[in-house]
Amino acid sequence: MPFPTQRPRRLRRTDALRRLVRETVLTPDDMILPLFAIGGKKVKTPIAAMPGQFQLSPDMLAQTAREAAELGIPAVILFGIPDDKDAVGSEAYAADGIVQRAVRAVKEAVPDLLVITDVCLCEYTDHGHCGIVSGETIENDATLELLAKTAVSHVAAGADMVAPSDMMDGRVAAIRCALDDSGSADTPIMAYTAKYCSSYYGPFRSAVDSAPRFGDRRTYQMDPANADEAMREVALDIAEGADIIMVKPALAFLDIICRVRQAIDLPVAAYNVSGEFSMIKAAEQLGWIDGRRVMLETLTAIKRAGADMILTYFAMDAARALNDHTT
Description:
Blueprint: H1 15-20, E1 31-38, E2 44-46, E3 54-56, H2 58-70, E4 75-81, H3 98-109, E5 114-119, E6 132-134, E7 137-139, H4 140-157, E8 161-164, H5 171-181, E9 190-195, H6 202-208, H7 228-240, E10 244-248, H8 254-263, E11 268-272, H9 274-285, H10 291-305, E12 309-312, H11 315-324
């Protein structure tokens, strides 16, 4: 048999050749940095389950946001840890709530940085669920008004985009109507559209103390076994006015990211969630993997699957690595 005339290794021979033919290019422009806001001043409390991540008071959060912007990261998404929790998540939509304060601090410090806010009630309710509870039932329609109030309050504080993560039916439409009615028709919505009921959220729930006090979230978050259902959720959120469609988690649902990307012409976001982050960090600390290389490989895989933007706790580390041009 004659030797094949095609030798794929020809184009892998040097770094310059590999860069020239690279199909997927990861940059800091692809990343959104999640940040955790907590009350006080000069507070920077490490999150044990998420090495290198912190609960930050608004002043410290603004400082971190400035550092992210200097690294070329275009956006942050804010999560709140309130001073008090109650059955209806009052601090989620309070004018002086923790996220509202954090938004104002970031916009004052870094006006051009895109500030996105997570819109949900789970961090603010004493029962830990994402909506109003009646007995042990999470009430869908009663929750919508509070989610809409939360989104409007975030935008009033200066948020550039809102991201509902609750998975209540109809919440995109409710938020869109509320924003339009309040004079914020230009504010986009990034919908957590295919958000699965995943075990990968554990470190996040520890970080914000949002684990449900009873039951779980299977009656509103999606079954990880379902793919066609995700496409129905995508169609509904687009019809209701979503501007960006998100898949969460990312790494265990690359097939869903790919299907969504092939099916729609809106931007697609993917959330590289806390469990995905913490597994890599833990293995790195044990010396089992090269954490930097696995981080970049993971983020590249998420982008290769079809994500236009990646919400990731690795954002700053990845931006530093990419800016060093030593990958």
